[in-house]
Amino acid sequence: MAEGPADPLLRLEGVQTHIGPYHILHGIYFEVPAGELTMLLGRNGAGKTTTLRTIMGLWRASAGSILFDGRDIAALPTPDIARSGIAYVPESMGIFTDLTVRENIVLAARSGPVDKARLEWILGLFPALKRFWNLPAGHLSGGQKQMLAIARAIAEPRQLLLVDEPTKGLAPVMVRSMIEAFRALKAAGETILLVEQNFHAASQLGDNVIVMDDGLVVHSGAMSELVADKALQQRLLGLSLDAHQ
Amino acid sequence: MSDAAAEATSAALPRARTDWLPLALVPVLALAALPLVGDLSAWVTLTLAGLAMGMMIFLMASGLTLVFGLMDIINFGHGVFISLGAYATLIVLGPLAGWASADSVTLNLALLLLCIAVAMGLTAVVGAVFERVIVRPVYGSHLKQILVTMGGLIVAEQAIHAIWGASPIPIPLPETLRGAFVVGDVVMERYRVVAVGIGLFVFAAMQLLLNRTRIGLLIRAGVENPEMVEALGYRIRRLFVSVFVAGSALAGLGGVMWAFYRQTLTAGMGMDVMVLVFIVIIVGGLGSVGGCFVGSILVALVANYVGFLAPKLALVSNILVMALVLIWRPQGLFPVARR
């Protein structure tokens, strides 16, 4: 992990997940320090999405423990996990397309009306959402939907934000906007676990990095170490950062 | 809404498109029928009767479309709640039969409202038990749902036979609701006018609930993506039960209105209208209350016009409407975005 790591907010210990007859996660261990952005990398099928869904309780861990803020949440139902302070942005974004942008955000604020100052901050991060405030979310472009998905996840303060491939399929200009938004979230002290395939984007954002392969964690450490070590990149991810710049 | 949001809404925004075409179907159909029917007063009478019938179908079907859309449950047992709602009138009519024949508008309407309240209460309780005992074990399996809810329907029908007997039971329409308003050559049955009023009230209440309340937002969101609703921290199971209970109570209300319309109770009266109920929720778009409303009126109007113009075709007119709508819009008139 990064130098002088903060206390882990989330810790996975020997987590295994089965989906039907398939054994997807084979006992993974990692930590997400509070107040930092941790990247979860790996090729397709490595188990990254399964890891996030298992943390959220959308798929059940068949073994191991998931300690969030010191409490094991592995057996909790999904709504209780969300209420404990974890927000989740799935790969599909999970936008309610029949609801307006406003209604999507209102629904995410469980405790009542969205705080005015926080909404101002969110709309400052994603100004495009202002234009579509009262339109059905189904009218948004892919990038705008992704912005809405993240805006919805931070509509109220949460302790941990899980985001699955936010730049997938986005145009380069939208990817840059997304990177800027995550930089602002980092600066605001949010704790984020972010799944990403785009190593160039990941290298700009991550404080820490976890690399998965075949349902196991094969590397964890500071992102700066991985960026500096081309041989390690080549071994873990089959690429070098230079090739993606 | 914050200043920023208010500023956002006041700017020149792209506007959401309203899908007017399905809404225009009803007036277009009615106007197209006018020259075919020929006589204006007959056309008005047929149209009003169709609207009243449409409202009663809507009352019976609206709960099922929500249950279908939100819970992905194919509940063939929905007819039970219609029958039970109808039979619940006997609980009120037993001790208060005199109110039906009393020469008092207040007593007559109070009797109707009491019947509705008792029927909705009874069907809500039975709906909660039905969901827990029959439906919950088969979430996620359509084939099992069909088999199990059909089984539940048969058992409930036999229970009605056991409690109230197998013979049809006549019930009196409250005095005030008998007869008709006559305006010129146009005849409007009083009970049908009341049915239209109750149908419109329920539709407006449902629209308000779905569009102006947090529980409504949750239902609409749950129809589209229940998993994401849970990931936002809401317990969708509780919402499922609430919607199932509310849907059962609405069917009970529809059963009362249907019972007074027919003035005869039979245990199978709920099952008899289930084909019609399924047709309107498919025509409207599964899970869409607005679609169910338009679909109910459309199907009822077509049945009335065809029944008048070509009685031999009346039996198949509903199927024809459904086929034509599905050819035009395979997801129904107002498709709901789904998981």
SSE blueprint and pairings:
The complex is a heterodimer of chains A (245) and B (339).
Chain A lengths: L7 E12 L2 E12 L3 E5 L6 H8 L5 E8 L2 E2 L5 H6 L2 E4 L11 H8 L7 H10 L2 H4 L10 H12 L6 E5 L7 H16 L3 E5 L3 H7 L2 E6 L2 E7 H6 L1 H8 L8
Parallel strand pairs in A: 3-8, 3-9, 6-7, 7-8
Antiparallel strand pairs in A: 1-2, 1-4, 4-5, 9-10
Chain B lengths: L2 H8 L9 H18 L2 H32 L6 H24 L3 H31 L6 H23 L4 E2 L9 E4 L2 E4 H23 L1 H11 L1 H6 L4 H27 L1 E2 L3 H16 L4 H21 L4 H15 L11
Antiparallel strand pairs in B: 1-4, 2-3
Helix pairs in contact in B: 2-3, 2-12, 3-7, 3-8, 3-10, 3-11, 3-12, 4-5, 4-6, 4-10, 4-11, 5-10, 7-8, 11-12, 11-13, 12-13
Please describe what this structure looks like:
The complex is a heterodimer of chains A (245) and B (339). Helix content of chain A is 35%, strand content 27%. Chain A has helices spanning 48-55, 78-83, 101-108, 116-125, 128-131, 142-153, 172-187, 199-205, 223-228, 230-237, and strands at 8-19, 22-33, 37-41, 61-68, 71-72, 86-89, 160-164, 191-195, 208-213, 216-222. In chain A, the strands form two sheets. Chain A has a six-stranded mixed sheet, sandwiched between helices. Chain A has a four-stranded antiparallel sheet with strand order 2-1-4-5. In chain A, a hairpin with a 2-residue loop joins strand 4 (61-68) and strand 5 (71-72). In chain A, helix 3 packs parallel to helix 6 (142-153). Chain B is mostly helical and 339 residues long. Chain B has a domain at 39-154 and 162-267. In chain B, the strands form two sheets. Chain B has a two-stranded antiparallel sheet. Chain B has a two-stranded antiparallel sheet with strand order 2-3. In chain B, strand 2 (180-183) and strand 3 (186-189) form a beta hairpin. The relative contact order of chain B is 0.19. Residues 1-13 of chain B have low confidence and may be disordered. The interface between A and B is medium-sized, with 37 and 32 residues.
